[in-house]
């Protein structure tokens, strides 16, 4: 398990070009003090904006992993036991896992709330860009500044 600088409750925060493991992220937040785990798994879907999607590529700014770690630390609250997040870069096909976020807490409410806050915040603030290819030959960049 990779530990990040800062709060030890951020147990994993990485970008990867290799397939993601939901089990790895879940295991990172398991804790005897946690009674609930909030989990989000983002996958590549076969359509967007009324177009068929054939594949996509994620690219990231060199600072993205550091910003991902900072974002994970920023969502921590006193009632959170642990957080973990991994995000893919590179080429992904339909059905591939793009992002996994897990948050543990003593109770489900805070775990679910912070899980949603973490995925929403990283999508807004971490410089990861999605290039979608559509079945009609067109393409689209998502998340560019």
Written account of the structure:
- The protein is of the alpha+beta class and 145 residues long.
- It has a single domain (10-135), classed as Aldehyde Oxidoreductase, domain 3 (Alpha-Beta Complex), CATH 3.90.1170.40.
- It has helices at residues 22-29, 64-74, 108-125; strands spanning 10-16, 36-43, 47-48, 51-60, 80-88, 90-93, 97-105, 128-134, 139-142.
- The strands form 2 sheets. Strands 3, 4, 6, 8 and 9 form a 5-stranded antiparallel sheet that branches.
- The model has no long low-confidence stretch (mean pLDDT 94).
> How far is the first residue's CA from the last residue's CA?
32 Å
Q: What is the CATH superfamily?
A: Molybdopterin biosynthesis MoaE subunit
Q: Give the helix/strand class.
A: alpha+beta
Mean pLDDT: 94
Stretches where pLDDT is under 50 for at least 5 consecutive residues are none
CATH topology category name: Aldehyde Oxidoreductase, domain 3
- Biggest pleated sheet: 5 strands, antiparallel
Strand content: 35-45%
N-to-C series of helices and strands:
EHEEEHEEEHEE
Percentage of helical residues? Answer: 25-40%
The total count of helices amounts to 3
Rg for CA atoms: 15 Å
CATH-scheme architecture: Alpha-Beta Complex
């Amino acid at each position: 398990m990779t530990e990040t600088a800062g709060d030890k409750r951020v147990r994993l925060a990485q970008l990867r070009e290799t397939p993601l493991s939901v089990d790895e992220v879940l295991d990172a937040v398991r804790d005897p003090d946690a009674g609930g785990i909030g989990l989000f798994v983002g996958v590549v879907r076969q359509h967007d904006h009324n177009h068929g999607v054939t594949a996509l590529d994620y690219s990231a700014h060199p600072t993205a992993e550091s910003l991902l770690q900072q974002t994970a630390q920023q969502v921590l609250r006193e009632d959170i036991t642990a957080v973990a997040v991994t995000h893919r870069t590179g080429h992904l096909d339909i059905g591939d896992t793009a992002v996994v976020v897990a948050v543990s807490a003593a109770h489900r409410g805070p775990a679910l709330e912070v899980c949603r806050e973490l995925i929403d915040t990283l999508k807004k603030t971490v410089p990861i860009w999605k290039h979608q290819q559509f079945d009609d030959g067109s393409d689209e960049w998502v998340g560019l500044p």
